[in-house]
Design a protein that fits this description.
The structure is a single chain. With 628 residues, the chain is α/β, with parallel strands linked by helices. The strands form 4 sheets. Strands 4-10-9-8-7-5-6 form a 7-stranded mixed β-sheet, with helices on both faces. Strands 11-14-13 form a 3-stranded antiparallel β-sheet, with helices on one face. Strand 7, helix 18 and strand 8 form a beta-alpha-beta unit.
Amino acid sequence: MKTLENPRARVITDKDQLNREVRFLLRYIEEYLGDPIGRYFEQIAGELIKKFEQKKINIDKFLRAPQDEKIDTLYDLLKENAEVIPHIDGVIGAVRKQIEDLIPDIVSSPKIEATESAKNTEYAVRGDVEIEINRQDVEWHEKLREFLLSTPGPVAIGKIGVDEFIEKFDNLRFSGIETQANFLTQYYGIALSDKLMETYPIRANIGNSGNYTPPPKELVDALGKEIIRQNLRLNKVVEFLKEKLRKLNLAQEYEKSLLELIKAAAEKIGGYDKSTLNLSQLLPYSSVTGIKGLPQAIQRTLVERGVAKENDPDFIKRILLGNGSSEAIKIIFDVLVEEHDEVYFAGEKAIYSIYSAEIKRVGAKEKLFDPKSKKYSEIGPRARMIVFITPNNPTGKVMGQQEVDSAIKAIKKSGNNQTILLFDEAYRRMIYNKYGIDIAAYTAKKYPDQVFAIADSISKEQGMCGLRAGFAYFGGPIENMEFLNETYKMRAESLCSNTFGQLALYHALETGAVIDAKVLESRIKSLTDGFKEVPYIGDVKPPDGALYLWFNVRPLMKKMGIKTSKEFALKFAKECNVSTVEGSGFGNHPDNDNYIRFVVFLPESTNMEIARRMKNWVTRSLSCGNQD
């Protein structure tokens, strides 16, 4: 009978087997002697495996050898020219002794290394390009300071302080680089201003790093009323007395004196037009489930959407608060995903950086689920999660019920009931050119037996990134969610999410207010139109939603002799003073390395300046012969 080969079976190499066998033998030695190697286990195993390579030991022969011979080999590798001890007990003890001799060398090194899981973590959005633009920003502002102090102008003559001038200049970035340049020109002339602004660092790598899109006024007002209390007890009394004085037709000076006396008396006994900062709710630790009223606000919102049920006695168990949705996602990975699990991403090859970072950290596998392709229409036996990022970061693509239906069909076909759906809703209402359905509500209604989670925040939709407030909600049959107790414990480890962020989240849910996405459309157009003028970029299409522009730069990279998107982004930052993000940071699909991502929310003049700098950079590079 012909043996059928499993096409999904992982190819096991000799190196994999050697890694596994060396670790097994070290564990055996630990258990046999009751003497653990501890935190240096991986380093000891690594040292031994390196020695296998250095001494060109036949791996196949080693793997087929009896256990006592394998331990002999470990001893020989740890201590060269050693006499082979005839008894297995003695060899095991000798191996442990040699390990002890090796450990002091490791411990005595002044270089303190991170854990292996930390080394596996990568987060491109805050990577090398971010470090580079930070360095440039510090240097540029130092030059600006020196310029202001040494050049005739309002700062040099003491008319305005240097810090005050720089603060005014920096605040103008929200109006665009053209406004900033005009501000400098007003005091120092166009030639000097242009020279300074030519190298002004522009951050186009991270979403809403500056408050370029103001948060909704009703949300700001609600927060203000919550934490700034006006003491108006005596205002009406004072106003009443002022009105009576005017009717008495007293001399103006006498009336003024009496008014001052009334105000002074009012302030003495309790305050007049006074405001106090009310932090009583924000200073203590909150409950793990949130400050007063927040769970109910989350529930009301989800019930109105059709995601949650109104009379759910277990609702409070289903929510997880986070410092932004990113922390909630991290906790979900900590609780649900482990080594060798598979995490699928629906519809897109490119995914938000945090997911790749978490997948690498826990040792899982990143997979593509494409509902339109038969090739990717199945999920494996280790599938743990199918993630829907919609609108997608970085591509801006919006997904709908077709993707959900295909995912549920794949789960049923596989028989793998250990798979949950995760809906990343950071940009749910930020849609420009396409109508998007509420896929979480669709799932809750059509597939009531499916366990799913949503992750939401006030970072993008309300323009309050720095407050770090978000939550996750777990929908579906609660009897199938045995992990909720562990989720609670993981949240409780850090006591609570920040209370000021929780307060902002509460009022965001209560007001339902979001930033005006229409403000962004003209900014998107300015950036896309500008990049269309850059040689070898081609057609740059605006996103359907979210805050980013994602486009292919492979033809341009080839012409300029640049091999990777990371090299492209770093070179662009160093030579043009603009930070962006390399496509390779958005998932493990090789095609992502052909792309870069820009934010779209910067003012029109700043976006036009980014495109102008890129066009000049490309033209300059190609004219210098940096091409194939």
